[in-house]
Write a structure and sequence with these properties.
The protein is mainly α. The protein contains 9 helices and no strands. It is elongated, with a radius of gyration of 32 Å.
């Protein structure tokens, strides 16, 4: 009896130890997958904003920033996001079911912050579908939907800060802070350039209401040329009249 109880105790203790190790492995994979997906998402957004603002000069260095790099970073971010979700789902400590993972506000663990991450997931799926249907929906609609990537980045940032177990660590706060500063600065540059382009386009479309061929008053050389042309025409007319007489 004594030996049997000892064996059963050891078996129970070994199973408990294995369960603890499995919890640590799944939780570490979930954390690593989440941060890796977030960093890759940040890089994809940075490359996209850099392409839209034409921040790179091809005459000075090779064009390293292109659409292929943007798409590659987005694909890698999606892969690590799937790893993050699967690790959270199979983690024996959290006990998350499909409802907690797929339905906003269904989780008992920080439901608001979890819901933001789920909404960001659905927005990412919508953008992926729009990219697949781009030849059918047109470039203009696809570009309008593609702006939602900035919303996904904001939701992912808030989700990570609100639900992550490493939020209080300096390295995690540094990742969130640096990512937000980089994306925010490029977004401000993008908005500034778009406003300047709109103003320049409006200035070019404005024309005088009178004679469309009127010479601008701010160009003295054009005025001199116009006067010389008129004088030569008048002198030609006078010469023709004198000949007729």
């Amino acid at each position: 009896m004594g030996n049997g109880s000892t064996v059963s105790y050891r078996s129970y203790g070994g199973g408990k130890q294995l369960n603890t190790i499995w919890q640590n492995v799944t939780w570490d994979i979930a954390r690593a997958g989440g941060f890796t997906a977030y960093i890759l998402l940040t890089l994809a957004v940075i490359v996209g904003l850099a392409l839209s603002t034409q921040i790179q000069s091809p005459s000075r260095w090779p064009r390293l920033l292109n659409s292929e790099l943007h798409n590659f970073l987005t694909l890698l971010s999606t892969i690590f996001l799937v790893v993050h979700i699967l690790a959270v789902w199979i983690d024996p400590f959290t006990h998350f079911g499909l409802n907690e993972i797929l339905i906003p506000l269904a989780s008992s663990y920080r439901p608001v912050w979890m819901a933001l991450g789920i909404v960001g997931l659905y927005l990412g799926i919508a953008i992926g579908i729009s990219t697949w249907l781009r030849p059918h929906i047109g470039y203009k609609l696809w570009r309008s939907l593609h702006v939602l990537t900035l919303g996904i980045f904001a939701l992912a940032t808030i989700h990570g800060i609100g639900t992550g177990s490493d939020t209080q660590t300096p390295w995690a706060l540094g990742i969130y802070l640096v990512s937000s500063i980089l994306v925010g600065s490029l977004l401000c540059r993008r908005l500034f350039l778009s406003r300047r382009k709109n103003k320049s386009a409006q200035a070019h479309t404005i024309t005088p209401k009178g004679n469309a061929r009127a010479v601008p008053q701010s160009n003295p050389r054009m005025l001199d040329r116009a006067r010389i042309t008129r004088t030569s025409i008048n002198e030609q007319k006078r010469a023709d009249v004198a000949r007729v007489k």
